Amino acid sequence: MHEIILVNDGSTDGTASVMAEVAARDQRVKTLHRSPPNGVGRAVAEGLSQASGRYVLTMDCDFQHLLPEFRDLFDCAVEGYDVIVGSRFSRHSVLLNYPFFKIVANRGFHLLARLLLWRNFRDLTNNLKLMRRHVVTDLRLRQPGFAVNAETGLQPLILGYRVKEVPISWINRVPGMGTSSFRLIQVGSGYWRVLLDIWLKQVFGAGPYRDLHRQPLPGQKSAE
Question: What is the pLDDT of residue 114?
């Protein structure tokens, strides 16, 4: 049993009608139409709140990923990992037309994040993630924009969940694949804010994420 939740974050094109057609053909497809205020972070948070499966897969609907590669994420889940991230910057990843300045910003962010958090990772900010349901329940998502992808990547890490990155292929949009609202200058500050707040939580137990903690699984007692 599985479900597909399509989130429409205020699109003004034909997205709503396409979603309705898909949902009419398959009862496993659920549609979620958001009202303002809009934002990727709000859309992700609301979509996750409606998910009911044991595993939750998040992804963008813009044809930037190759579906057959998703099997690698599920294989890692079978191995016992709690969060599996499709990494654009692993040694075996393939990037097509990835903007140069986004590469510089991404690598700079992850370099500083590794230094501050004393963890080894390469690309935890990609939206392509497979998470166990109890991990999703623990998340505290505060970012309204794209920086939510840093929250879903870094929060499980400092909570001690087993996080695994698998290499994927990433294809930049071309005409006919839609347009992205991602603007590096506009959204960059959100990523740095998340990193600072995660560091405050890890080192001092303070900041906006101070209440971030692992909930005990059914049948387990809290360690606190």
Answer: 98
Indicate the SS3 state at residue 51.
coil
35-74 exposure pattern, b = at least 16 Cβ within 10 A, e = fewer: eeebbbbbbbbebbeebeeebbbbbeeeebbeeeebeebe
Measured distance CA(67)–CA(110) in Å, rounded: 26
Would you place residue 224 in the very low, low, confident or very high pLDDT band (cuts 50, 70, 90)? Answer: very low
pTM of the predicted protein model: 0.90
d(CA 159, CA 223): 13
Angle CA(169)–CA(146)–CA(19) in degrees, nearest 5? 75
**In 3D, which of 114, 179, 119, 105 has the Cα closest to residue 147?**
105
Distance CA 135, CA 149 (A): 14
**Residue range 20-49, pLDDT digits in tens:** 999 999 999 999 999 999 999 999 999 999
The structure tokens listed for 40 are 């990727």
pLDDT mean across residues, the chain: 90
Helices 100-117, 184-204: crossing angle, 10 deg rounding? 10
